[in-house]
Amino acid sequence: MISILLLNMASNLNLDISLGLTVEKLKAAGFHYVLIGVGTDKNSGIKLAGENHNIYQFLPFLRDYNRGFTPNMGKHVAIIGAGNTAMDCVLRAALRIPDVEQITIIYRRSKTEMPAWPEKYEEALANGVKFMFLANPEHFAINGKLTVRLMKLGKIDSSWRSKAVATEQTTSLKIDSIITAIGEQQDSQMLAAIGVPLDKNGKPAIDLASGETMQSGIFLIGDVQQGPSSIVAAISTARRAVDTILRRENIYSYHGNKYWSNVDPQHLYQRKDQITVKFVDKQHSEAFLEQEADRCLECNYICVNVLMSAQIAPMSRLPSLVFKIATKHCI
User: Fold this and answer.
1) How is residue 189 annotated by DSSP?
2) In which element (H, E) is residue 5 found?
3) Distances (CA, A) of 181 to 34, 68, 102, 155, 301
4) Is 25 strand, coil or helix?
5) pTM above 0.70, yes or no
6) For residue 258, how many C-alpha atoms fall within 13 Å in the half-sphere facing its CB?
7) Bigger pLDDT: 187 or 264?
8) Structural domains in the chain plus CATH codes
9) 121-137 pLDDT per residue, tens
C-alpha cells in the first residue's frame, strides 16, 4: 500500500513549517509521495508613496470576503492590475460590497497586453467597471487623491509583452480604497523551508511532464508549479502527478520493469472458486453487483463491472451500488 499526502493552504502549512515540518519528516512518517498544492500565495503588492493605508492585497481581501468579513471600502475602489485575479476581485467581491458605487481598474500596459480573459473583461464592462490603461499609481494621499503616472509602450520584454515606460505626465483620481492584484508568485522561501529543491534562479526545480521535483516522490501541483493559471490547468498538473505515481507503482515489482498487478497471486488462487459465474436474474441488480465484487481481481483499474451495472440498474441507485463494490475491493 502507498501513502500519499496533499499539502495545501487549508492544511495550515505556515504553522506546520514553524513547527519544523519537512518533506523528509513526512517520508520518515511513512508517506511515500507528497503532493504540494499551495498555490501562489505570495503577493509582492505595490509600493505607493503617501499616508493613505487603505490598501488591500487581493488574497487576504478575497479570503476575508468569503469568510463573511466585509471591509468599509468607500464609494470608489481602484483595482491595480488587469489579470484574472483582478477581475475576480471585482466581479466576485468588490461589486457586491455595500456602498461601493464605482470601480476603476488601473493597468500600466494597454488592453492588448492585458492578461485577463476577454470574457472577464467584457463582463466587467457590462457591470459598469471603468478601465484606465497605460497608467501606473505612484502616490496615495490621506485625502484620497491617487496620483497616477501615464505610461507608454516600449520594447518587448521577457514576458513577450511591450514594456511599460514612464512618461512625464501624471493625472489623479479621487479614490477611497485600493486593492492590489499583481505580483502573484510561488513562495520559494516557504518551499525551500520544507525541503523542495530550488534552481539557480530560486524557483522550484521540477519536471514539467510530471510535476516531480528534483527530490523523488515530491510533486508540485497547481499554480505553485509555474504561476497563476486556470482551474483546468491546475487540475491537469495533479492528474499528471497521479498518473506518474500510478505508473511507478505498477512498474515496481519483483518481475522487472514492466506493468504488473500488485496483487499476490496466491490470494487469487484461494478465491478461484468464486470466479465461476452464477446466473443472476437481471431484476436482482444488487445480487449481481455483490457477485461481481467477489470476483474482482483487484487489478488496480476501474472495474468494467461498474459500467455494466449501469445497463441493468436504475441510474438513481447506481452510486449506492457502486459504493458497495468500492467498500469490498479496489475501486
Assistant:
1) H
2) strand 4-8
3) 30, 20, 17, 24, 43
4) helix
5) no
6) 2
7) 187
8) 4-40+185-251 (3.50.50.60), 45-182 (3.50.50.60), 265-328 (no CATH)
9) 999 999 999 999 999 99
- Of the listed ranges 7-11, 77-81, 95-99, 288-292, the one predicted with least confidence: 7-11
Q: What is the reported pLDDT for 307?
A: 43
Q: d(Cα 137, Cα 267) in Å, to the nearest integer? A: 70
Q: Of 189, 137, 193, whose CA–CA distance to 23 is shortest?
A: 193
Residue 158 burial (CB < 10 Å; 0-12/13-18/19+)? exposed
The count of other CB atoms within 10 Å of the CB of residue 114 is 21
For residue 54, the number of C-alpha atoms closer than 13 Å in the C-beta half-sphere is: 20
Grid cell at residue 228 = 497563476
Distance of CA 84 to the CA centre of its chain: 14
Instruction: Kindly give the residue spans of alpha helices, DSSP state H, lying in 147-228.
Output: 188-193
- DSSP class per residue in 67-80: TT------SEEEEE
Question: What is the helix (H) or strand (E) element at residue 211, kind and residue range?
Answer: none
Q: How far apart are CA 224 and CA 234, in angstroms?
A: 9
**How do residues 83-94 score in pLDDT, each as one tens digit?**
888 998 988 899
User: For the stretch 180-218, what's the b/e string if a residue is b when 16 or more beta carbons lie within 10 angstroms of its beta carbon?
Assistant: bbbebebbbebbeebbbebeeeeebebeeebbbbeeebb
Q: In what order do the strands lie in the sheet with 76-80?
A: 55-57, 177-180, 76-80, 102-106, 130-132
> Chain centroid to CA 50: how far?
35
Indicate whether 220 pLDDT > 80: yes
DSSP count for the chain of H helices, then E strands: 11, 15
Other Cβ atoms within 10 Å of 240 Cβ, number: 19
Q: What is the C-alpha separation between 106 and 285, in angstroms, rounded?
A: 61
Task: Kindly state the DSSP code that residue 10 receives in the 8-state scheme.
Answer: G
